[in-house]
Amino acid sequence: MKYFIGADHAGIDIKAYVKELFEGLGHEVIDLGPTTKDRVDYPDYAAKVCESVLSNEGSKGILICGSGIGMSMAANKFDGIRAALCHNEYSAKMAREHNDANVICIGERVSGYGMVEAIVESWDKSSFEGGRHEGRVAKINALSNVGTCRA
């Protein structure tokens, strides 16, 4: 699986760790930045990751900021993106199994390294169940966004 990862300055410390975790599970991870703790705006990196996911069929995204909230809000502005803010392994599992989420959002300031590892492992082990969830995901996909986020 190919993953695209991005963060803002508040998520930079854990980004390398998350990248390493996904690579350790056998995935290709493309880091879209940033590379320093200089202040940046999270919508810019949400846009980079979401545009990459949308233009690379079958890929997924990882977004990290301080709380994960801003990244998830920005990512969900993109048609075709189903971004889930995950604070624990159960939410990561449900996001994949029931909602077919294609982007995971993590908050560095609210999830420690141990919890992040559990989130990543749960996300990785899970897959979309389909069945009764297909109609609900189709309804999510049919919701029209007013526009797309452009940095």
Features:
6 helices; Ribose 5-phosphate Isomerase B, Chain: A; single chain; alpha/beta; about 150 residues; 5-stranded parallel β-sheet
Blueprint of the fold:
Layout: E1 2-7, H1 12-24, E2 28-31, H2 42-55, E3 60-65, H3 69-75, E4 83-85, H4 89-97, E5 103-107, H5 113-125, H6 132-142
Parallel strand pairs: 1-2, 1-3, 3-5, 4-5
Helix pairs in contact: 1-5, 2-3, 4-5
SS elements, strand count: 5
Work out the radius of gyration: 14 Å
Q: Could you say which overall geometry the principal axes of the C-alpha atoms support?
A: globular
Number of domains: 1
**Backbone structural class:** alpha/beta
* CATH-assigned fold name: Ribose 5-phosphate Isomerase B, Chain: A
Order of helices and strands: EHEHEHEHEHH
The low-confidence parts are none
Count of individual helical segments:
6
Describe the structure.
With 151 residues, this protein is α/β, with parallel strands linked by helices. It has one domain: Sugar-phosphate isomerase, RpiB/LacA/LacB (Ribose 5-phosphate Isomerase B, Chain: A, 3-Layer(aba) Sandwich), CATH 3.40.1400.10. It has six helices and five strands, in the order βαβαβαβαβαα. The protein has helices at residues 12-24, 42-55, 69-75, 89-97, 113-125, 132-142; strands at residues 2-7, 28-31, 60-65, 83-85, 103-107. A five-stranded parallel sheet has the order 2-1-3-5-4, with helices on both faces. Helix 1 (12-24) packs across helix 5 (113-125) and helix 4 runs parallel beside helix 5. The protein is globular and about 45 Å long. 37% of the residues are buried.
